[in-house]
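Annual report, structural modelling task.

Input specification for the pyridoxal-5'-phosphate complex:
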Amino acid sequence: MKKYQRLAQQIIDQIELGVWQPGDRLPSLREQCASGEISFMTVSHAYQTLESQGVIVARPQSGYYVAPRLAATPRTPAPQVIRNETVDINTYIFDVLQASCDASVMPFGSAFPDPRLFPLAQLNRSLANVSKTATAMSVIDNLPPGNEALRHAIARRYAQQGMNVSPDEIVITAGALEALNLSLQAVTEPGDWVIVENPCFYGALQALERLRLKALSVATTPEHGIDLAALEQALNDYPVKACWLMTNSQNPLGFTLSPEKKAQLVALLTRHNVVLIEDDVYSELYYGREKPLPALAWDTQRQVLHCSSFSKCLVAGFRIGWVAAGRHARRIQQLQLMSTLSTSSPMQLALVDYLASRRYDNYLRRLRRELAQRKQLAWQSLCRHLPPEVKIHRSESGYFLWIELPEGHDASLLSERALQHKISIAPGKMFTTDRLYDSYFRFNASWAWGDREEQAVKTLGTLIQQL
Ligand SMILES: Cc1ncc(COP(=O)(O)O)c(C=O)c1O
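The model returned the following structure:
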């Protein structure tokens, strides 16, 4: 171990022992040199290493501080399962989203990644190519279950990960949201109990509200994901019909479940004969070496409906998603025929054209690298400007940060005040049926980092202090 690595490890050990608390200022470079009789370069190298690992943060003209995300804030433990006979959240979600739908607003609350990351020139070329060759028959060719070549391309991506999904089981939809909604509708009747995570993607709660389903919200944390013991309790206590959750890069918390936990989850739901509606829209946005498998990979009894889309990783505006629906594929097509009829055919054809160019994987590699860098920059900026008591949960995928204000602070109020300064955030209240996450918010870190972003984070810091 080199000298600077030894020093970095020493500091990590001291933080773990509680010698240094989150928010504490570390000895300056000069003080550290004097106390350990080590060179300035060694200390500087050690501090930079710790900073890049997110253990400490630099504050300009002030020094190095222990990162707030390591804070162990004691909180009232969340109830394991919360039941709601009715879900009533859509009006609130609509109002929050409407209020931030303004191009002059800094979109930290947005769910979409920065569209400038997408390969728009190539996609436009593909659209132009297909518009030259599309015939009157293309509409008919692309009716449910959707374009055959596109379903084959998606099936081949499952095959790359060792999953056997037939193109005949895939239904092309208007984004993942339609896939998820149709899946839920296909396996439930109004009044049925459905399990969701707490907190969860608000689209799940809106779907429950629309279909008049009852919610069982199961405790879920950024560190461990869904609590399987609580899930089992809910399955024992209620006649549950379906479970809607995310196993990769969960929105809003960011975690990815371990392969062991995914296997346990599928086994548990299978034992209780409960369908899993798996929302996997962020699966391409991992930072590690390998794309994580979905829970679908452990499904031997065809209990999983796997939903995803191109909206978060290639193009949001095309509105193309899909569900690998297994034995439910026919029912889902019937429901689609009654609602949207079919997905736009030029968009399906353009995606077929783009995917055939084989550029997709190279582009995805660049996208993942860029997102990881942007998230790191956003995180460093937040650490610089938010008060040290604020805890920032950061995951190794996607582009969201989950931010925890000190207990009692109201993130909805922060959101209202931030909007007056043309900054949006996504308050925790959007992701739950109760008050548990009132002091949290989700932060979109996909934007290229510049002065405007830095200033906006600084303003957020001031607003939090004023709370
Ligand atoms: C977790 C999650 N699932 C599904 C969707 C909807 O995806 P799409 O835009 O493909 O309909 C979103 C969009 O924000 C999301 O965040």
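The longest helix spans residues 360-385.
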